[in-house]
Amino acid sequence: MVTTPVLPLEAASPAHICPFDQACSYLEAAGKELKLDQGSLEILSHPRKVVTVSIPVKLDNGEVRVLAGHRVQHSDILGPYKGGIRYHPAVTLREVSALAMLMTWKCALLGIPYGGAKGGIAIDPQLYSVGELERITRRYTSELIKDIGPSVDIPAPDMGTSAREMAWMMDTYSVNVGHAVPGVVTGKPLSVGGSLGREMATGRGVMIIVREALADQGKSLAGMRIVIQGFGNVGGAAAELLYKAGAKIIAVSTATGGVYYPTGLDIPALKTYAAVNRKSVVGFPQAAPISNADLLTLPCDVLIPAALENQITEENVNQVQAQMIAEAANGPITLEANQILEARGVTVLPDILANAGGVVVSYLEWVQGLSYLFWNEQRVNHEMEQLMVQAYHQVIQQSKLRQVNLRLAAYTLGVGRVAQALSDRGLYP
Ligand code: NAD
Asked: Which positions in this protein are listed as binding substrate (predicted)?
């Protein structure tokens, strides 16, 4: 039994949905399968560093508000810390800690030389002006100046952030240290050293993993009925690429509600519509409105939750009709719901595999930046696809070898590699 670290500032959420307890349960299951010693499990269940900073910001109306910004560095056993920055009202230190741990296993699973980290601020970015968001991002970066860096900890976009915030972070860091440091963040705009292919990378990775899993079942993407929750960086890109591959995207949702069209939505038209409707798909002509709850239980071949965690729970899992679920979001299925889906024979493509395309291209961006060489998009996509397909086959092989589900197979690979490195490096007194 691993001891859950005491995280300051907030009470635990109810046990069944506490993201950090859930992350520790998966670690524990992997540790048991790998017969890891108790000491290694204890080390791996604790984040190495937890930072919370105050971010005073002057709003456009002159009022001053103080926000809390977190950065949790789970492990740097395999390389510099790596992980996104989330702006969302539901951000908590426990959630950030769970996501940081997930990043450690994800990077190890994909064979890229990074550790895991995550950051976040509990704000709804839609409620702030661009100027306010810039001041928040710059002050947050400045407060973290000693904790990040191209060989220390490299942030990237996550929910509520994008290339724009990464450019502000890169600029703030560079001004503070006195010279340009593009390698401090990934997911940057191309103009400051970003990589071609990064914007679509997580969605592309989701498409690749779904394609491979369907191929193993003797099916192809063409004509598959797909439902996607979330239409942002990840869900939007996955929808576009799956649509291009001939799949029918029959329903899509955003935070404000969803749309349903049983013969398949026109995804390029929906993207254009959302772009001019504050990123919402509600009211898209011809399609019927659908709530987020009903969207998850629609009859379909593949369900892709690409928004928040804990969307498929004990309460709704029995109504879920998809035979395949690709976790584009981090942690969208609770532990209990996952067990029920497994018993029903539903294929669950776990988050640390399905949504790893983003961190893979972040790594490729970092490598290009450090070597002052820039690749064309075809090369970036090709390198990413190779790593994704390789990881997929390793997970399938591990699942057969150990007779475990795909999530436990992915975890045993990720956790096993980090534990091996921990054992080889040894414990500094
Ligand atoms: P985003 O902010 O770009 O998009 C999130 C989408 O989810 C938006 O369309 C939003 O309207 C929608 N949404 C929010 N709350 C919702 C709700 N209650 N019901 C339905 N839809 C809702 O975020 P993103 O970057 O696309 O991230 C989505 C998920 O993917 C997160 O779990 C994130 O951790 C994970 N992820 C992102 C990346 C990346 O490269 N951006 C990489 C790996 C994993």
From this structure: 82, 106, 362
Q: The domain that contains 243 carries what CATH number?
A: 3.40.50.720
Are the CB atoms for 45 and 74 separated by under 8 Å?
no
Report pLDDT for 2. Answer: 52
Inside any domain, residue 37: no
Atom of ligand 1 at shortest distance to CA of 234? Answer: 26
Report the distance separating Cα 191 and Cα 184, nearest Å.
Answer: 15
167 and 256 both lie in a single domain? no
Whether residue 206 is found in the same domain as residue 138: no
* Last residue of one domain, picked from the residues 299, 333, 354: 354
CA of 329 to the centre of ligand 1 (A): 6
Secondary structure letter of residue 335 according to DSSP: H
How many domains would you assign to the chain?
Answer: 2
* Residue with CA nearest ligand 1 atom 14: 255
**Pocket around ligand 1: residues whose beta carbon is below 6 Å from it?**
157-160, 202, 229-235, 253-255, 292, 306-308, 328-330, 355, 358
Q: Which of 254, 292, 298, 303 to mutate to test the pocket of ligand 1 (most atoms within 8 A of CB)?
A: 254
Among 234, 207, 238, which Cα is nearest to 220's? 207
pTM, to two decimals: 0.94
Structural domain span for residue 128: 46-181
The residue nearest atom 5 of ligand 1, judged by CA position, is 232
Q: pLDDT at position 286, please?
A: 83
Final residue belonging to a domain, choices 297, 328, 354: 354
Read off the pLDDT of residues 253-267 as tens digits, 9 standing for 90 and up. 999 999 999 999 999
Atom 31 of ligand 1: nearest residue by CA position: 329
**Phi, psi (deg, nearest 5) at residue 344:** -85, 0
H helices of 326-405, where? Answer: 335-343, 351-354, 357-370, 377-402
Catalytic residue of the set 49, 118, 146, 279:
118
User: Where is average pLDDT lowest: 12-21, 92-101, 159-168, 360-369?
Assistant: 12-21
Give the CATH number for residue 166: 3.40.50.10860
